[in-house]
Design a protein that fits this description.
Blueprint (H helix, E strand, L loop, with lengths): L4 H9 L6 E3 L9 E3 H13 L3 H11 L8 H17 L2 E7 L8 E14 L3 E2 L2 E3 L10 E7 L5 H5 L9 E3 L19 H8 L35 H8 L3 E5 L24 E4 L1 H12 L5 E12 L4 E7 L4 E11 L9 H21 L5 E8 L7 H10 L1 E3 L26 E3 L6 E6 L7 E5 L7 H7 L10 E3 L8 H5 L5 E6 L4 H5 L12 H20 L20
Parallel strand pairs: 7-8, 8-9, 9-10, 13-14, 13-17, 17-20, 18-19
Antiparallel strand pairs: 1-2, 3-12, 4-5, 4-11, 6-10, 7-11, 12-14, 15-16, 18-20
């Protein structure tokens, strides 16, 4: 059981040494740790925290923040104005170099769905992103259609007009036999620390994180296209398609259709909680006529300007070298995007505020990046890295590593040629990311970078009373540190307690402010500020896993 760390930590601040103490030599280098400066960071972060207020603005006022939506634009403008008020410099909504990745933004402006017979009850659900609404109030019968092959579906020709189609059997919803919220035990953290490296070192494209949907895609065995069930439903005049998620307990996960698809090729698509979906299926199986009504208004926003939010605190004698903190700013739309990822964005904004307000001297420039389009394949951070640090050469010159993201009419391609490095690539020290929910930071993933292990091991010593105790050579995937690691830059994600992230809040309709733990949030922001400070003030840049291969240089932008 975890004690409240804030009380413990505040008592420990006074015990911190107030002199600069040299750390033990690690991997051929000696870094000085200024404990007086760390004490100032801790005091500001734990006694004067604004992190929960920032999280409330992001969620309660500007949530959800779906990529390409007007709400995300407003959230970005708020974040930029807030950082300018703190005195950060070069604050901007930096446009993506590639503005073709989002042909359409999207918002849900109204959602109403209910059963009207044989009993009336409201149905909890939400539209899948980038799918159309109902064009006013519509009423129709529900019908269960689980068939996927052409022959079976063609037998239904002429029977589906105006129907609400349920496409899956009722799911089995398991009880919560285990706690939905968990913290790592020491044994689990020890096991992570003893793990061996896995995966390539760098140069591998990050995986797309978003989920494509809508019209059927891909190819079947032998290159034969599968039967397009969505096109068949459109042809037959189906009113809407309903799906569900087996998590149950009033909770469902949401995603998005193909944001580049012609809206005429998409149907109203609705995700419904398992309890309501299962009731409808069981009623239909009992030959009960289930009649639904819906009034759903979804709006497309053509060609939104896509951007990342950036700002920085300039360094002193090493100002041309950069340390970055970051998190993705976008979210899904069924709730307000608290643990995914206002938790990371608010913590990183607060870390920048702490560094500025504490007045600690920073030798290197510390910069923040709040990324757009992460949920659709790390697009914002990949675009930023391509613009500032490295791109692919050859036929794909100027493209982010990994090619196009899914959901815009093409799959993720491989690298088209050798990477081209900007001069800024050689002056980049490290990137730190928060995007594993709102749980407490317990350590850091090394991303296979063995050379940085002894350095981080010495740095976490002053943070042990904050709960930071372990490092692991393992990588964690699916978030923006991979955009930096993919071009040979040191990019890291913190180890965080799982809490309710995977079990309950991730991409769900319940990912609201209430899922955040204030003590964890305060501490996480303080730890991020300490890592940024130590990286900025080290004598040398952080070591890299492999020397960057020689390649043509391009001018830094």
């Amino acid at each position: 059981m975890f004690r409240n760390r804030t009380t413990t930590v505040l008592a420990a601040i006074a015990a911190c040494a107030v002199t600069t103490v040299a750390a033990m030599p690690q991997a051929g280098r000696t870094d000085a740790i200024d404990y007086a400066a760390l004490s100032r960071i801790r005091a500001e972060g734990l006694q004067n925290s604004q992190v929960m207020e920032l999280a409330s603005w992001m969620t309660d006022v500007y949530g959800p923040r779906l990529s390409g939506s007007p709400n995300l634009q407003k959230a970005g403008e708020w974040a930029a104005a807030t950082m300018k008020d703190w005195g950060l410099q070069n604050v901007a909504l930096e446009p993506w170099a590639n503005q073709t990745m989002f042909p359409r933004g999207w918002t849900n402006d109204k959602f109403y769905l209910a059963a009207v017979s044989p009993q009336a009850y409201p149905i909890t659900g939400m539209s899948t992103a980038w799918t159309p609404g109902t064009n006013g109030l519509v009423t129709g019968d529900a019908v269960l259609v689980t068939e996927t092959d052409e022959a079976s579906l063609k037998k239904l020709t002429g029977t589906l007009r105006g129907k609400f189609v349920l496409t899956d059997a009722a799911p089995d919803v398991a009880a919560f036999w285990s706690p939905t919220a968990q913290r790592y035990t020491k044994a689990e953290l020890d096991e992570m620390e003893m793990a061996t490296p896995r995966g390539p070192e760098f140069g591998t494209a990050p995986p797309a994180a978003g989920r494509a949907g809508g019209a059927a895609g891909g190819r079947g065995a032998g290159g034969t296209p599968p039967f397009d069930r969505t096109a068949f439903f459109i042809q037959e005049g189906v009113a809407a398609v309903l799906t569900t998620h087996p998590r149950g307990h009033g909770n469902f996960r949401i995603g998005g259709a193909n944001r580049g698809a012609d809206p005429a090729t998409l149907l109203p698509s609705i995700v419904v909680v398992a309890e309501h979906y299962g009731r409808m299926v069981r009623q239909l199986q009992k030959q009960q006529a289930v009649r639904l009504e819906a009034d759903i208004r979804n709006t497309w926003h053509p060609n939104p300007t896509m951007f990342d939010v950036v700002g920085e605190i300039p360094g002193t004698d090493k100002a041309d070298e950069v340390v970055m903190l970051g998190a993705h700013f976008d979210s899904w739309h069924a709730s307000t995007g608290a643990t995914d990822n206002a938790a990371g964005s608010a913590a990183m904004m607060e870390a920048m505020r702490i560094l500025k307000a504490s007045g600690v001297r920073l030798r290197r420039t510390v910069r923040i990046g709040l990324w757009n389009g992460e949920e659709q394949g790390l697009i914002g951070s990949r675009d930023y890295v391509a613009k500032h640090y490295a791109t692919t050469g050859g036929a794909g010159a100027g493209a982010p590593v990994g090619g196009a993201a899914r959901g815009v009419g093409g799959g993720r391609g491989g690298n088209a040629g050798p990477m081209q490095y900007t001069p800024a690539h050689a002056k980049f020290s490290g990137y730190f990311n928060i995007d594993n929910g709102g749980g407490a930071i317990r350590g850091i993933y090394l991303q296979g970078n063995t050379a940085v292990a002894p350095i981080f091991r010495s740095w976490i010593e002053p943070m042990r009373d904050l709960g930071v105790t372990h490092i692991t050579i393992r990588n964690t995937g699916g978030t923006d540190h991979q955009s930096f690691d993919g071009v040979g830059l040191p990019g890291f994600q913190f180890i965080q307690d799982p809490m309710e992230y995977s079990s309950f809040s991730h991409h769900s309709n319940l990912d609201s402010y209430e899922r955040l733990q204030p003590d964890d949030m305060r501490t996480n922001a303080t730890i991020a500020a300490m890592f940024a400070y130590l990286t900025a003030n080290a004598d040398d840049l952080l070591p890299r896993k492999t020397p960057a291969p020689a390649g043509p240089k391009t001018q830094a932008r």
